[in-house]
Amino acid sequence: MKRDSIPILRVGDTLLITVHTELHDTVAEAFQEDVLGAIERSGAAGLIIDISGLDMVDSYVARVLADTGRMARLMGTRSVLVGMRPEVAATLVRMGYPMEGVETALGVDDGLALLATARVR
Amino acid sequence: MARLKLDAREIESRRAFFELTDDDLARLASLRTFADRHSKEIVDALYELILGHADSRAFFSDEAMVQRVKSLQREYFMGLFAGRCDVPYVEDRLRVGAVHERIGLQPKWYIGAYSRYLRLLLDRMFADFKPADAQAAFSSVKKLVAFDMALAIDTYNVAYLDTMARQQAAIRELSTPVIRVYERVLLLPVVGTVDSHRAEQIMEQLLVRVVEEQARAVIVDIAGVPVVDTRVADHLIKTTAAVRLLGAETILTGISAHVARTIIQLGVDISTMHTLTRLADGIELALGLIGREIRPAEKKS
């Protein structure tokens, strides 16, 4: 079976991942593996996951995204979730899954800015 | 008018209910010469009623206008004897109804005028035809007039519904005015009681605006909310959580001593929010989040 792989871009010492396709169970597992593998290889200081292309995020996908961020953190890479759509945010909060502990930003620019401030400290 | 969905099928169904058959329409068409002969005197008699009544006379400013509407009325009258009851006929009737609605002519004048119409027609029919024929002719015209009346009343209803929908939209908008106070800073003054429905609406609109304006900070001012109970506090916490997911921060201002006491006594944890008493402090904090500050102007020497 052909796997829809999600491209991972490298900008400076930050990894940028734009999620376009819906993350189904199998894709989500592979996604997590790919991201962590890329961090291991590159030793990137920051990770930005852009989900502006997703108009639906269920609790499973939300958990995968949050977990991936936490795992990256364990590996010393700070991660930011960016570009969440209003209706997705409303749904997650209504489901009682506000993704506590996950850093967020409005877009890729803000995400990069957030990662930059942290490095100065 | 699109709201009435008066397509061929609906017209068919109405005609069936008003028992308006093809025979009726054919009979009406055959009465054209009769109608033509009497149209002037019937319309004149109709306007005797309308102009003889102070309230209905008020719709007519001068004699020229009376002449104009009389000639339109004759067209309308002759329409009853066109022998048609299709989509263009209905559209024409609705257009007439809409004009009357717009000038504020209420249904009572409409129905009163129809009643006079029918009586005038009845008299002329029995004078011109044999009783059996007059009976049949009157029965047909009565059906079409009832059909027309229903259309007229529908026009009024639709107009009222439209007005109501517009007002509801206006109220909805007024209840959640999201104001852009500075580049990437939004202010939402909440005034009045917040129930679950309104809270949901506030959250949805606020989230959309945060993304639209790419806002980094949202100030929610609750100085105008009379009672903050556990439910309202819960809504505020949810909204804050959703705003955070987008990548922005929420600042809650306008917390009075009374509200502060209630929140603590209720045991609500709102530590996830920045909270302040004064809106001015909230604006300063918000500006700080976007790397700006308010400073006294330097004196020019």
Describe the SSE topology:
The complex is a heterodimer of chains A (121) and B (301).
Chain A: E1 8-11, E2 14-18, H1 25-42, E3 46-50, H2 59-74, E4 78-82, H3 86-94, E5 103-105, H4 108-120
Parallel strand pairs in A: 2-3, 3-4, 4-5
Antiparallel strand pairs in A: 1-2
Helix pairs in contact in A: 1-2
Chain B: H1 8-17, H2 22-30, H3 32-51, H4 54-57, H5 63-79, H6 87-102, H7 107-128, H8 131-175, E1 179-182, E2 185-191, H9 196-213, E3 217-224, H10 230-246, E4 249-253, H11 257-266, E5 274-275, H12 279-289
Parallel strand pairs in B: 2-3, 3-4, 4-5
Antiparallel strand pairs in B: 1-2
Question: Can you walk through the features of this model?
Answer:
The complex is a heterodimer of chains A (121) and B (301). Chain A is an alpha/beta fold and 121 residues long. Chain A has a single domain, classed as STAS domain (Transcription Regulator spoIIAA, 2-Layer Sandwich). Chain A has four helices and five strands; from the N terminus they run ββαβαβαβα. A five-stranded mixed sheet of chain A has the order 1-2-3-4-5. In chain A, helix 1 links the parallel strand 2 and strand 3. The longest helix of chain A is centred in the first third of the chain and has 18 residues. The model of chain A has no long low-confidence stretch (mean pLDDT 87). Chain B is α/β, with parallel strands linked by helices and 301 residues long. In chain B, 66% of the residues lie in helices and 9% in strands. In chain B, strand 2, helix 9 and strand 3 form a beta-alpha-beta unit. In chain B, helix 2 crosses helix 8 and helix 6 packs across helix 8. The relative contact order of chain B is 0.08. The chains are: A alpha/beta (121), B alpha/beta (301).
